[in-house]
Amino acid sequence: MKYLSVAEARKLPGLRLVLTAHMPGPWGEAAKAVLSARNVQFVPVEQTAMGKNDDLHAWTGMRNAPIAVLDEEPPQSTWLEILLLAERLGSGPSLIPADPLERALMMGFSTEICGQDGFGWSRRLELMGRGTTRNPPSAGNFDMQRMTRSYGVNDATITRAPSRMIGIMKALATQLHRQKAAGSNYLIGDRLSACDLHWATFSLFVSPLPPGECAMPDFMRENYTHLTPELAAALDPILLSHRDLIFHRHIRLPLDF
Ligand SMILES: N[C@@H](CCC(=O)N[C@@H](CS)C(=O)NCC(=O)O)C(=O)O
Description:
The protein has helices spanning 6-10, 26-37, 54-60, 79-89, 100-114, 119-129, 144-150, 155-181, 194-202, 218-225, 229-234, 237-250; strands at 15-20, 43-47, 67-70. By secondary structure, it is mainly α. It folds into 2 domains: 6-89, 3-Layer(aba) Sandwich (Glutaredoxin), CATH 3.40.30; 100-250, Glutathione S-transferase Yfyf (Class Pi), Chain A, domain 2. Glutathione binds next to loops. Glutathione (GSH) binds next to loops.
């Protein structure tokens, strides 16, 4: 994928999507999947993982990714902001269920998967707290102060992270088994909603797709594949068959980043 620099992108109108360039970050892949499912076009803009990203900060007030900026509107960065933007700008079936109870469940699952203290957040803590996690050669430029401050990294949060991941994986698997018994392959009702895309993309964090479908640097594949026995036990096969179906049916493969 070809990325514009922040300096180039700032001058353009339209929708610009800041992404951690050349790697499948779960939040970034989720944003891309949600926008694409709603047929929303965007121009990719480069963020450097764990870097200072001063030019990005000067433009948006933020240093991480993803960030969606439409024309002169305020930057949108959380999974919910990006989903609402995709709903507003896009076309085709909505990714948000119309039924209020189903909508509450969808919003709840997406919060559990993508939100602060959720599945992805806890996986990041678990990775940052593990001695065997590998860094890329560029690690010397990492702004570790920003990382620990922004993502709540401390001994207590690192310690509780695996149990939060396990609880969320079990809840998703329970829902998928119920849905299967009712004749549906989707998390909510009988069709795609945002939380299906969120689980599929965040599952890369614990079980990457094969290199032909999702290339990634070796160090990253190793980090993302590593599971303690407790985490491996919570990764019910139904979670992976769901994500495979969502990727093949609703997200373009191979992933391009
Ligand atoms: N803004 C997102 C979270 C985004 C996020 O956690 N981004 C991480 C993905 S690992 C990131 O950019 N990490 C690299 C960095 O901070 O430089 C949200 O609030 O939902």
